[in-house]
């Protein structure tokens, strides 16, 4: 996957200094990550050995897909399919088939818009954005957390 990303999502084609994030080249396109894991879901939690899946997804979904402007849909993750009975694998595939039928109508994940950052100050959040979120329980996103707890499922579910 990394080789494809490095060859296809290149500077000048997929992004530029003026065309990135919410103003990116692919702002009218949707993207989704679909993959299997070799571990059960609990192992990808805040207390799990593999760490929080939201943290794992942030560099891919924000740092690559959203950076190029894509509207990023919630990922399709099949947790440890090689470790579950074949009937459950069939259920997983049927769920994916159903999701694919309505995929284009899905709401994308939320990312902080580019205009919330001050370019002149090294793309730091604008003071008014920080003030607006000062009393909120969670940060804006996994990677933009304002020193607060990470928003739960921010990279896993739309509308969070």
UniProtKB/TrEMBL annotation:
A GO MF label: NAD(P)H dehydrogenase (quinone) activity
Gene3D superfamilies on file: 3.40.50.360
Pfam families associated with the record: Flavodoxin_2
GO CC terms of this entry: cytosol
Keywords: Oxidoreductase
Boundaries of every Flavodoxin-like fold domain copy: 1-80
Similarity-based family: Belongs to the NAD(P)H dehydrogenase (quinone) family.
UniProt name for this protein: Flavodoxin-like fold domain-containing protein
